[in-house]
Structure formats: structure tokens, C-alpha cells
């Protein structure tokens, strides 16, 4: 593809507009977003709860490591399950974001095939990127944020372009010269999510204390994670679309056409 930005001043990424549109899509298509993200979140939380305990899963207790290698394996498997949930949810929501942006009808059934064909590379690459992020985060935080920005659009690249295990390299190429604006968007979304999670967490805590049911805890925890997953996936999809527009002259309708 031709890089239309070559030899020209960098066009702005437009983070404010992207964040605003992310919220617009999230709340404008809230039922569909919840429908897509809630199921995988519940399944992931139930499996993780069975593996490491529902208290550890919800953050109200420490994981039990008394079982030695068996317990460590259970924790590792629970982490992998959460990456699978992330992969499925993101792959589905990326497609929803483009249909919503274009004003097209949301067709969840049409998203399933491309989503599941992308799960394995997204899981593997997310694990690699996650390890690099944690190493960078341990080095005074900022390097971790920069690493996140480098690989931020890996999932859309895998889903849309069928980049497979080359998704990290494709993301690195697309985000070049735009990583600090992406860091800014990431930090802002974290702050917003913390505020939302604090308010929602207080409400969930009160309900959970009153009801005292594991099932209710799982449902409420899944509902809370759905909001964050939906917002993050939509924002990443829009950042990817904007980068393709700036660097390659590819419009959103051309990106979405791969699913037609």
C-alpha cells in the first residue's frame, strides 16, 4: 500500500475526537456491546473462579498457592482464559465499531467467523505484548506505556488485515510517529475507567453484600468488565482506522468492506 503521508507533515491523530466517538458508539450501541462482551466475560469469570476460587477472581481474596505446581498451573490457565476472553471480545467489537461508525446495522452473527479465526494469534501476541508491557511498566512506568502504544492496534490488524502472527509488526509500523498521542488516550481512558469502576464497584459491593450470592458476584463483575472492554476495544478500532486513513488513504468504509 502507498503511504500517503510520506514527505508530508504528520496529520493529527485527533485523540479528542476518537475518545468522544468511542463513548458515542459505546452508549449508542450499549445493548449490542453488552450482548457481545457479557457472554465471554461471564464464561471467563466462571472458569477462572472454578480454577482459583471466586474470591481470588473477584479480588476479595488472595489466590491459594498451597497446592504447589498444581495451583500455579491453575493461576496460569486462568490468566490464559482471560486473554482468550479479551481476544474474542475485541475481535467482535472491532467489527461492531466500524458498522456503528458507518451507521450500518449491527449484525453480530456476521462477526463470529472473522472473530474466531483471529483468536489464536490475538491470544499469543497479547501474551507477548503483555509481558513486554509489564517489563516496561516496571521500568518507571513510562516505557510500559510506550510499549502499549507500539502494539495498540495489533488486534484490528489481525482481524481486518488477516495479519496473523505478524500483527505486532504491523501495529508497530502503523503507530510509528503517533505513539505519544496514543499513550495520552490510553492514560485518559484509564482515568475515566477508574472513576467508572469506583462508582460501579461501590454499587456492586453493596448489592453483593446484601445478596451474598456467588452467581450475583459473577454477573455483576462481568457487567462491570463489559463496560471497560467495550470502551477500550472501540477506541482501539477507531485509532486503527484513523492511522490507516492518515498513512494509507484507506477510509473506514473500505476497512469495513472486508466483512461484506
UniProtKB/TrEMBL annotation:
<keyword id="KW-0812">Transmembrane</keyword>
<feature type="transmembrane region" description="Helical">
    <location>
        <begin position="30"/>
        <end position="52"/>
    </location>
</feature>
<feature type="transmembrane region" description="Helical">
    <location>
        <begin position="119"/>
        <end position="140"/>
    </location>
</feature>
<feature type="transmembrane region" description="Helical">
    <location>
        <begin position="146"/>
        <end position="168"/>
    </location>
</feature>
<keyword id="KW-1133">Transmembrane helix</keyword>
<feature type="transmembrane region" description="Helical">
    <location>
        <begin position="218"/>
        <end position="241"/>
    </location>
</feature>
<feature type="transmembrane region" description="Helical">
    <location>
        <begin position="72"/>
        <end position="98"/>
    </location>
</feature>
<protein>
    <recommendedName>
        <fullName>Glycerophosphoryl diester phosphodiesterase membrane domain-containing protein</fullName>
    </recommendedName>
</protein>
<feature type="transmembrane region" description="Helical">
    <location>
        <begin position="180"/>
        <end position="212"/>
    </location>
</feature>
<keyword id="KW-0472">Membrane</keyword>
